[in-house]
Design goal:
Strand content: 15-25%
Structural class: alpha+beta
Strand order of the largest sheet: 1-2-5-3-4
Order of helices and strands: HEHHEHHEEHE
Distance between the termini: 36 Å
Helix content: 25-40%
Number of strands: 5
């Protein structure tokens, strides 16, 4: 067991917007993002770098619903490939993506 706190509880409603979230939490990324919903909404320039692994995410979250929610926040997706280059991902590609690191942001990187 590991103690955990929601991002929205750690960064209350008066906290300034943030610009970066980096996470690799073995399939718990959807929980962390949902627990930071208000923080994401008030952080227009936020960039999320995270591990994307459908086999690890799917026991804990509806991946399609997660993608729909993030798209509803105006987020877009890129796969981080060798050399730090970014490959744009549409919804279908993201849902079928093998274990990868991704960037999620509203801005063009």
């Amino acid at each position: 067991k590991v103690p955990a706190r929601r991002l929205d509880d750690m960064f209350g409603p008066d906290a300034k917007p943030i610009s970066l979230i980096k996470m690799d939490i073995e399939g718990g990324e959807a929980w962390a993002l949902r627990g930071g919903a208000a923080l994401l909404e008030r952080s227009p320039d936020v960039r999320v770098i995270m591990e994307w692994s459908p086999p690890m995410l799917s026991p804990r979250a509806d991946i399609a619903a997660l993608v729909d929610w993030l798209e509803g926040l105006g987020m877009r997706f890129w796969r981080v490939i060798k050399g730090g280059k970014l490959q744009p991902l549409d919804r279908a590609a993201l849902l079928n993506l093998p274990h990868s690191d991704i960037l999620i942001t509203r801005q063009q990187p």
